[in-house]
Structure formats: C-alpha cells, structure tokens
Amino acid sequence: MSRPRRHINDRAPTGAASLPALSRRITACRRCDRLVTWCASIGRDKRAAYADDDYWARPVSGFGDAGARLLVVGLAPGAHGANRTGRVFTGDRSGEWLYRALHRAGFANQPTSVARDDGLVLHDCWVTVCVRCAPPDNKPTPAERDTCIPFFVDELRLLRRARVLVCLGAFAWDGVLRALDAPSPRPKFAHAAEASVAGYTLLGSYHPSQQNTFTGKLTEPMLDAVFARARALVGAA
User: What DSSP assignment string belongs to 25-73?
Assistant: First the structure.
C-alpha cells in the first residue's frame, strides 16, 4: 500500500523563516547569469515610454495577504512590467487584466496596479511567479526554472492557509506540479482545468498575455469564471 502524500506545509522548512526573509533571499539571488544580465540590460536600455523610470532590474518576490487561501501563479516578471516596477504583474497589460479580475472577484481593493506604492491591497490572495527574473522572450530555460522552484516551495510552506492555486498558463501549471512533486500521471493543463494535488486545488487559466487577450483566446468573462470558481472554493475551505 502506498503512503499518503503529505501537504507541503507538513514538510521541514528549508531556511525561509518568514515571507520578508524569503523576499530578501529572492531579490538577492544572482544564480542565473543569463537572467541577471538580461534584467540589467533592460534596466539600462529602457523603453522610451519609461525613460525616466528607475527600473527594479532584479528578481521579484510575490506579494499579497500572508493569510491568503488563494495563490495566483504566473510565469515570470515582464521585462517592462515587474522588472521595471518591482512588483509582480504591475505596470503591464497582463497585470491590468489580472487585477481587474481580482477586483471583480473581491480579492483586490482596486482594479489597477501601476507601481509598488499605488495603494493596491490584496484580500485573501497572494500573487507570485515561478521564475523570479524577467527572461528573454518570456522563455526561461529548464535549468532556470528548476533553480527558482525552491523559492516557490518555500513560499507555499510559509503561506500556510493557501489551498487554491490559480495557474496562469501551462508553464505555471507545470511549475506548480513540480513544486508539489505531483505523481504521474500528472493532470493536464487547460483553461478552467481543475485538479486536486497534495492537499491543494489547482485551477488552470490561459495567461492574460497580449498574445492571448488580443486574439480573443482569453476573454474577461473567461478569466472571471476562473476566479469565481476560486472564490467558491476558498469560501468552502
């Protein structure tokens, strides 16, 4: 008989004593030379619209309600979004879609996110990414993904009330399954997919990237339906 799989919060911690301590470890990380170089170059060669901005240009940690039951997971910081502002899904089109949806679902106090000090507050929700540095062409390598996964594992251990994980895109879905050490066969990603893994409920959504939103592959009603389901699940937790 196989042994029951333990919830990730039952496992021994790996050194992150608190979320602020984990954030400091993340922002200090310089393990992936390609990503460090790329983030710094974006910070130097700024987009014309942000020529006067002081780019963050280093790894980005998650943020939100430390007692959150909902965890939203994306791929990586945007080159001129979070890599510029220093807060995940802040300052780009993907963030515009995400925070409008979170506001409509009652997880955010406002529908906009333009800077770290813009007054945005998340309720019962934490937003994070699998890879902490902006990658070229939004495509981290497998080695870069695997280097970052321990940060996400520590984040889950510290977010002890989290039970519902909304995965924005197939990369985030796969990253979450890897972090949870999900057994084979692993559940397949799809928009509105739902799976129970290691004590969590995973919900899939297409990523709110311009590639998906401009083409109509993802619509606001589709995204709202995922967060309505998340709201129902956390209410039942």
Answer: HHHH----HHHHHHHHHHHHS--GGGTTS----S----EE-TT-SEEEE
Of 67, 64, 59, which is closest to residue 160 (Cα–Cα)?
67
Backbone angles phi, psi at 79, to 5 degrees: -55, -40
- DSSP code string of 121-139: -BSSEEEEESSSSPPGGG-
Q: Which tens digits make up the pLDDT trace of 208-221?
A: 999 999 999 999 99
**Is residue 228 one of the residues assigned to a domain?**
yes
Q: Is residue 6 part of a domain?
A: no
The CATH code of the domain that includes 150 is 3.40.470.10
Question: pTM of the full predicted structure?
Answer: 0.93
- Number of domains the chain contains: 1
Question: Residue 175 domain-assigned?
Answer: yes
pLDDT above 90: percentage of residues in the chain: 92
Residue 230: strand, helix, or coil: helix
The model's pLDDT over 130-158, given as tens digits with 9 standing for 90+, comes to 999 999 999 999 999 999 999 999 999 99
- What letter would DSSP give residue 8? G
Name every residue whose Cβ is closer than 8 Å to that of residue 112 and which is 6 or more positions away in sequence: 96, 99, 100, 118, 120
Domain with 79, as residue range(s), is 18-236
Looking at the domain assignment, is residue 3 inside a domain?
Answer: no
